[in-house]
Amino acid sequence: MSTTKREGVTLRYDVRGNRGAPPLLMIRGLARSSSYWGEIVELLEDRFCVITFDNRGIGRSDVPTPPYSTQAMADDAAHVVGAAGFDRANVFGVSLGGMIAQQLALRHPRKVTRLVLGATRPGTRHGPGTSARVVYRMLQAIRHPPSEAVVLTAPLALSDRFLEQHPEVLDRWRELASSEKPRLSGFLGQIAAVLRHDVYRELDRISQPTLIVTGDADRLIHPEHSDVLASRIPNAELKILPGVGHDLTTEAPHEMTALFCEFFLESSVGSARHAATV
How many domains does the chain have? Predict the structure, then answer.
């Protein structure tokens, strides 16, 4: 991985795939480093130049003193795009990453070609709240070592069907939680960013072509939040994946890859056709 520094915070990032292909920045969610993308990066490498990075507070990036904000984390993401050698990129963000992606499109519109928002929301006040059971499970997890906490919270991120069929995912997550040793201050900083995020009134300023994706089995962020996003962002498309939980790319990597290729590469084909006729 490479490093870059913004305002004293070191960010670790990686660039994989075809350097001549359209760049795709992928932004992970709460308490998840870029290591948790799993197989989807490999699925995308032939068609995209894939940029992944560890948000502040997690993985191999710095853990500055909390609280954090989605504004600052979006500025981090914009900085990473430039450090990777690109003026702009297609952007996908999931969960907290989707909140960061909203801010990225609003604060740095010239950095974003097309936008996919996965399993996310515009703010805590504009849709169904998080259930008491989910909040309790997350608070309970904080009291355990990371390798145990990731197992306790897995049923919030993944559907029952997927967990039953793919127990090997938990083994991989345990390994990552043990090797990366997340720090509580980083987790609390990112939680603060989630709780303070609210761009509901600004969403009509997002001008990039936007696709919103959610799973109807999401326990963490109710799918109705995606309806709100689709209604507020001009000309946004909404795609619902049946039976899929919160972690879209872990549960449905092939379906998400197909959506990315259709949505992101459509702009490249359209631009090439337009250039050929001018």
Answer: 1
